[in-house]
Amino acid sequence: MNLTYEQWLVEASPTFTWNWRFQLLVQGHIRRVLAGDMDRLMFSVPPRHGKSEMVTVRLPAYTLEKDTAFRWIVGAYSQTLANKFSRKARNICRMRGVELSSERRAVDDWETAGARQVPGGLRAAGVGAGVTGMGANGIVIDDPVKNRAEANSETYRNATYDWYTDDLLTRLEPGGFIILIMTRWHTDDLAGRLIREQGLKEEGGEWTVINLPALAEDDDILGRAPGEALCPDRYDEVALARIKRVLGSSFEALFQGRPVAAEGNLVKRQWFRYYAAQPAPNIRLSIIQSWDTASKDTELAAYSVCTTWAITRLGVYLLDVYREHLDYPALKRAAMSQADKWHPDGVLIEDKSSGQSLIQDLKADSMVPVIAIEPEGDKVTRMAVESVAYESGQVYHPERAPWLTDYESELTSFPLAPAADQVDSTSQFLRWARKRAWLFSWEGAGDTLAANEAFGEQQPDNSHGWGSISGSNDFRGF
Questions:
Q1: Which of 85, 144, 338, 376 has the smallest C-beta neighbourhood within 10 Å, fewest atoms?
Q2: Residue 207: pLDDT above 50?
Q3: Distance between CA 334 and CA 311 in Å, rounded?
Q4: Sheet with 273-275, side-by-side order of all strands
Q5: Phi-psi map region of 397: left, alpha, beta (phi>0 left; psi -120 to 50 alpha)
Q6: Would you call the peptide bond into 418 cis, given omega within 30 degrees of 0 as the criterion?
């Protein structure tokens, strides 16, 4: 086969578009990799711009049609995603007439057939999966980070880097190459660490790095004017501006390829928005309480905290904060009393420590609508993930409340402040609401964009009992 990679893309998948400017740039760098001009290539590309289809899926198929002895490893954040890429590449090989082995054809490990002594093929591996027993002429790693929680976990970042160095790198054959394609999440994600540890090729290091921001910046690599969209046919400037309003500072990392190190305060005071009057009962979609429980009745023990929230189509309203040192009997009485006060539709309680007993007892002895919550991640990661709800203007505090100063002080000083009980109660509720699409959500699963618009275009209307709403974030355009 004498087709170039660019020619082959058009012939193999004629219904796809392959001539957008950024695609041609990527294809040109792939051609240099195949020619042996570079062996470490890194692309930072926004979500949903087709990076996986063009490189992770079709590059292995192209090389195997050209040379059936070529061996690939394709990695991703999960085995499921790696298998998805592998299956697509295998199907294209079949459609292009590449003869595949009948003996080794599993989706995560398949080979070509023929007279060659060493057949080619592809091994798919999720982060952490072993790849012993085979070498690779080419390795593609596509989105080794699933979401913000993984990106913020130092344990996960270390495990990903160890997987790269101990498993993948040791499988690379002499003269082989590695391509890393990812949406940036963190300054210390795999891309960031490789750049820091191994350096840029232009500075005498190993990696050629191509960053393709969704909105052009100064000295754009494609020659775009500042603010011009990377691929207007997919996401024009208006669409990207709307996404940016939702994501806040996360947009800089995910869509611009420029992650910024987190500051000490995950929730900033300028993000707070306020209401003068609680939303009227006919406006509320739901009332939810969220408990962070502690069981020791001493001054040194943690507080037990219950935050009460109203969910509306415009966002969530913090109605009340109850915070006391309580022994377990008093905790149970307080949970029932707070439920009697607000008549919630659900009461969130973390299913661990004293929360486990409280869940069991309330279900047995009361009509409180308990919802057991399985904890995920550490305190800092949980709040970091949910802080976008504040940044994007979806959370409202009362203008005045006796507990407001202490509550906001804890939020803005976390994780530097010693107390975190109100933070834990808040992040637990925000996560629960986000998972049910009550809030805009960003679930970064590689190329998966989930900006669930749960509020429509409704605007605050004082004539319907909202009272006044104020804050530093512009709420228009939701």
A1: 376
A2: yes
A3: 23
A4: 370-373, 346-350, 286-292, 304-312, 315-324, 395-398, 273-275, 469-471
A5: beta
A6: no
Between CA 14 and CA 70, with CA 11 as vertex, the angle to 5 degrees is: 125
Q: Tell me the domain boundaries of the chain.
A: 5-240, 269-471
How far CA 280 is from CA of 64, 260, 313, 400, in Å, comes to: 64, 40, 12, 18
Let me know if the fold of 5-240 is the same as that of 269-471. no
Compute the distance between CA of residue 327 and CA of residue 277 in angstroms, rounded to an integer: 34
Helix (H, G, I), strand (E, B) or coil at 174: strand
R_g (Cα) of the chain, nearest Å: 26
pTM: 0.60
Count the alpha carbons within 13 Å of 48 in the hemisphere toward its beta carbon.
16
Closest by alpha carbon to 214, among 182, 259, 254, 181? Answer: 254
The CATH number of domain 5-240 is 3.40.50: yes
Measure the N-to-C terminal CA separation of the chain; round to a whole number of Å: 51
Please, are residues 396 and 466 in contact by the beta-carbon 8 Å criterion? Answer: no
**Sign of the CA dihedral running 226, 229, 230, 232:** negative
d(CA 403, CA 412): 15
Give 242's DSSP letter: H
Query: Residue 390: what are its φ and ψ, rounded to 5°?
Result: -70, -45
CB-based burial label for 196 (10 Å; 0-12, 13-18, 19+): exposed
Looking at residue 469, its pLDDT comes to: 33
Q: Which two tokens stand for residue 261?
A: 């190190």
DSSP string, 328-364: HHHHHHHHHHHHHHH--SEEEEESSTHHHHHHHHHHH
In one letter, which amino acid is 265? N
Q: Which CATH class is domain 269-471?
A: alpha beta
Residue for token digits 């690599």?
221
pLDDT in tens, 124-155: 999 999 888 789 999 999 999 998 888 888 89
User: 163-202 pLDDT, tens per residue?
Assistant: 999 999 999 999 999 999 998 888 889 999 999 889 888 8
Residue 409: is it exposed, middle or buried by C-beta count within 10 angstroms (0-12/13-18/19+)? middle
The answer to whether the CB of 71 falls within 8 A of the CB of 174 is: no
Q: Give every CB contact of residue 364 below 8 A, 6+ residues apart in sequence.
A: none
